Amino acid sequence: MKKILIIEDDPIIAHIYRTRLEKEGYSVETCADGQSGFYRVHEYNPDGILLDLMLPKMNGVEILKKIRAQAKFAAVPIVVFTNAYVPNMIQEAFSAGASQVFNKATLTPRQILDALHLLLSGKADGGTNFLGGASRTSNTGTPRPANDPFGLGESTYHFPPTDAGSPPPPSNYVYARELSGATGAPPPFSNPPEFQNTNPQPDLSPLRGPFTTDDTAFQQELAQAFINARPDTLAGLRKLLHEFTKATDEKTREPHLVELYRKVHALTGNAGIAGFAEIAQIAAALEVLLKELSEKPKNINASTLRTVAHSIDFIGELFKVSQPSKGDPPPANILVVDDEILSRRAIAYALEKANLRSTNVEESSVALQLASEQVFDLIFLDVQMPGMDGFELCSRIRAQPINKNTPIIFVTSLTDFKSRAKSSLSGGTDLIAKPFMFIELTVKAITQVLRYRLMPKKQAA
Hints:
By secondary structure, the protein is α/β, with parallel strands linked by helices. It has helices spanning about 10-25, 35-45, 60-70, 85-95, 110-120, 215-245, 250-275, 275-295, 300-320, 340-350, 365-375, 390-400, 415-425, 440-460, and strands at about 5, 25-30, 50, 80, 100-105, 130, 335, 360, 380, 410, 430-435.
């Protein structure tokens, strides 16, 4: 019997993978943090490892490097799942020796089973990147450059990537052992009690067998368990958001932010494995934003707080209408209007982090012509532009029926009350201040694109 070790901090995700693998005849053990997982590798001697990169105590890339440095584990298949909005860690995972890498927001148990079967049977070549089906090599067989892991083309990365992605979870990110169902003496915690989780143990009964071996029935059970948990999930997110936003200083804000990150991190995996792609997509981006705010608290301001709040409110909207889906969503059509070339490239780079392509123009007159000819899912406008400024351009776009309801986000250095009021009066949907965090703009873009596409569903509900 082949032995599989799962190193995953979310108890529900770990339970689902364990149950499914055991049904296929594997012997399975789980570990809830990177440190205990690394030690368990040596005791359990697994034939294969499932590894989340975003782990407390020791992140997945560190574990990979340490495992591959030992000859006895050099050939052990290691399947990695991570957040697709952290491209630097994806590339690092391959460099450190990952056999396969999956996007956690779109990962299904069937993909895991197929990957393990092929790797353990020796029929698969390591290094296939399942993030959208792309591989680590280009179509010509040449390795992809480190700054272009998704094969988007070198021209898309000319803007200097000053935001190199997100670091591993905050140093104070603690996994609550009582959620893991683990037995025996827990490893020593160096973290203060306020960072320990005090939430009640989640109800895993909807996910306990007997499961049928039919994938459709299995996915239906996962989806129903996710649906049943939605009210409690949303209430928990809103409670933590309230505590986070009401905190008056960095010290009192920190534990609430870390716990909110943990909740959203769990939601990403739970929504993805249950097939709720839209919820997983926005949760994955929000997770990275929260992580960056935890590591860089000086970036916590009115704009980022508003973005976090709007995203959680939108997750609540998705909970009401979102259904399990298969396949990739249709590509978004986004227009970016800014007379400054560096600003346009910055916005394009932030959009590319979410695999969102854009049409970028510098002249307001050209933008107005485009907006009169085709429907866009989202429009970004600078305010201070020669000739027709952003406010006037927005008003004229709104006067035409074709993009009357398209979300429009102003990206500007003007953040005074008068400018905000004028942005709303001209028909703007939202505003983000320059300079902006790339991941904050990514979160705003995903929220607005999905909300725009949600309108027909809400009208039909």
